[in-house]
Amino acid sequence: LQAKGKPAPQVEWFKENRLARRVKRVELETDGDKSILLIAKAVPEDSGNYRVEATNAAGTAVKPFSVKVNG
User: What pLDDT, in 10s, does the model give residues 39-69?
Assistant: First the structure.
C-alpha cells in the first residue's frame, strides 16, 4: 500500500478484525510512504479477510481484501 498525506497517515493492517502485527509469521515493513504486509511461509490458515487502514487528521481510507492460500 502506498499512502500519502499531510500529515503522513498512520497505517494499520488487520486480519479478521485483529491487528495483523499480532498474527504469527506476519511482518510489517515500511519503505518511505509504502507499507508492506509479509506472511512468511504462508499456509492455508493464513487465508481470510484482511484490510489496511490509513489514518490522518483528514480521515481514514480503508481497503479490504481477501487472501486465499492453497495447500
Answer: 989 999 999 999 999 999 999 999 999 999 9
**Residue 37: per-residue pLDDT:** 94
Residues in the chain, how many?
71
pLDDT value at position 1?
86
Q: What is the DSSP letter of 58?
A: T
**Three-state DSSP state, 57:** coil
d(CA 54, CA 8): 9
Give the position of cell 490522518.
Answer: 56
Return d(Cα 30, Cα 24) in angstroms, integer.
19
Evaluate the CA torsion angle 41, 24, 47, 50 in order and state its sign. Answer: negative
Torsion sign over Cα 1, 32, 23, 58 = negative
d(CA 65, CA 46): 13
